[in-house]
Structure formats: C-alpha cells, structure tokens
C-alpha cells in the first residue's frame, strides 16, 4: 500500500502545457472575420435600439404615459448594456482566459 502512495505522483501527469493553436484548423481566419462582422452588427443594432428606445421614451413622457416612458428607459439601458458587452467582449474573454491560466 505504501509503495502505491509513493509511486502515485510518478504516474500522474504533472506538467501539461496546452495553448491555443492559431493554425490547427482550416478556416480560422475566416471565422475571425465572421466574428468581427457579427460584433459590428451587434454594435449597429445597439445604436438602432438606443434610437428607437429614446423615441419611445420621448413619446411616453410627452403623452403622459408612464408605462411607455418606463419601457423606453429600460430599452435605453438595455441597448447601452448590449453595446458595452459587444465592445468589451474580446477584453472580457482575454481577462478570464488569463485568470484561468493562473489557476
């Protein structure tokens, strides 16, 4: 039993070093282009949602409709949050990748 306990660390892999491979699969460059295009579309749609939400908020405030004004306010906040997430997505992923590498 004691021999098994002393031999166990020798059997377990102690140093695994795996990093992302940029050229491991074909189409990685095209995938990066597609992801960049989707990020651009997300930002454009966030701007569109902000404009529409601001219009709804204005109509609600000027027509004494608090429900409509509240929905417009929520839309403004959601569209701004979506723009922040789209813009910071690469930075967020890199941050958590670095945190994961330190574990």
Give, in order, the helices and strands: HHH
Whole-number radius of gyration?
Answer: 25 Å
The secondary-structure class comes to mainly alpha
The geometry reads as elongated
Mean pLDDT, rounded to whole units? 88
Strand content: under 5%
Number of strand elements: 0
Which runs of at least 5 residues are low in confidence (pLDDT < 50)? none
**Count of discrete alpha- or pi-helical segments spanning 4 or more residues:** 3
Helix content: over 70%
Q: Termini, distance in Å?
A: 31 Å
Largest sheet: none
Walk me through the structure.
The protein is mostly helical. The protein has a domain at 31-102. The protein has 3 helices and no strands. Helix 2 (28-62) packs antiparallel against helix 3 (66-102). The longest helix is centred in the C-terminal third of the chain and has 37 residues, at 66-102. The mean pLDDT is 88. Keywords: Membrane, Transmembrane, Transmembrane helix. It comes from Kocuria coralli.
